[in-house]
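Q: For a teaching session next week I want to show students how multiple molecules come together into a single three-dimensional assembly. I've collected the sequence lines for a complex. Could you give me the predicted structure tokens for the whole thing so I can convert them for display?
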Amino acid sequence: MNYTLQFGQVTEFLPYLAGGAWLSLQIAFLAFCGGMVIGAFGAMAKTFGGRVVRGITAAYITFFMNTPQLVQIFFIYFALPDAGILLSSYEAVLIGMTLNAGAYLTEIQRAGFQSVHRNEMEAAETLGMSLLQRVRYVIMPHIAKVLFPPLSNQYILMTLGTSMAAIFGVEELTGRAFNINAETFRSIEVFSITAVFYIALTLVASMSLGLAGRYLFRAKMRLI
Amino acid sequence: MPQLEIVDLKAAYEKLVVLEKINLNVEKGEIVSLIGPSGSGKSTLLRVLIGLLPPVAGRVRLDENDIDYANKATLRMLRDRIAIVFQQYNLFQNMTVLQNVTIAPTKVKGRPVAEVTEEAKELLSKVGLADKFNAYPDELSGGQQQRVAIARALALRPEILLLDEVTSALDPELVNEVLDSIRLLAAEGMTMFIVSHEMGFVREVSSRVAFMSDGLIVEIGSPKVVFDAPTIERTKDFVGKILRH
Ligand SMILES: Nc1ncnc2c1ncn2[C@@H]1O[C@H](COP(=O)(O)OP(=O)(O)OP(=O)(O)O)[C@@H](O)[C@H]1O
Ligand SMILES: [Mg+2]
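A: Of course. Below is the structure for the complete assembly, covering every listed component.
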């Protein structure tokens, strides 16, 4: 092999890549927040809903958990225009990732609902706490603590998942890496630097989430 | 005038009738122990008294006032005056020892934090946990957790304390520290209902012992009578069996 590594040519693109990383972060964050909202309603629907509501929620989860995310976004991007709904590639990716996350986050949050100890609720009741106080002081902190680690994991997975956006021409981190690669043909340099960016994104996310978890919930979380 | 009157009390889980017809008067400062075979309804009686299971029939009177277990305001008043400690402690895992004890007085009763904290520290010191204020429940032994649960119940300044097998989840060497805390309360004149398998302890602290079987109080009397000279055949069998252990 006589490939000589030449990072010099690529380093001038670092700010450009950083911009892409910023966009990746945005997509992951927005999709995660949207997914959390969907997930909260989904979890309530599955826990407290009637048969029809539970059925609809289950169908939604089954669909999004059992088809590739890429196909889901393809559907939104290419099939919806036929139905008169035109979306930019950025919007399609964001909506696709949000809906997909919603399914996973429904399941995660539902597990949190189920993990509340009946005993603690009873003790709270005998101490005279109202239902609202019990939710506020017993259920919420408990759910938050139980859910924090799996939610952090989901967030990390989603950060990596944003690279799919490149396929649709969104210029996030991977998209911009493609662009630089096409210009310089320095594939090894470009993609190894890109990998470092991803590692930085996820390490920073998981370390700050881990620290927050330790501080907020005494969750025994590993930082890496 | 009895502090607590239980009249023809009946309770059931769905269709399963667990308390048939309970009658019992308790004077202020009395310590009544409930003994009896597993499933006889001891825990259920305590759960009804504290309002976790609404009775099907009968009455409970506190200082001559009927308790309406369907009324939320009455329930809140009731839980001001009666407290319960469970076998499994049921501490709030997300709170420190001190927070476990202060949460109800501050959030439910709205008392000033500083005053409640001071009082909580005193209570915790009294049960031997002066060095554990900031520990979390999962950092404590079972006996320590149970003593926190007792302090938590006492923080509401109850007039009547219900104790449901508070030592039976503990290792033998931890039992005594919890019993000591209860002895202290007994000496202070707290009215108590005690469900316990510690027969030596029951005999020592009880004003009266009630033997329950199949949802009825079959026999009730001083510890001396119930343990040494029971008049009913079923009590004899039960007491004979336990004391032989
Ligand atoms: N939550 C519940 N739902 C349905 N049945 C119950 C429930 N709790 C208790 N029971 C039943 O009620 C009866 C009395 O139970 P209880 O717990 O009052 O007995 P106990 O005297 O406290 O027994 P133990 O000494 O084992 O604690 C038992 O037959 C039990 O199976
Ligand atoms: Mg019991």
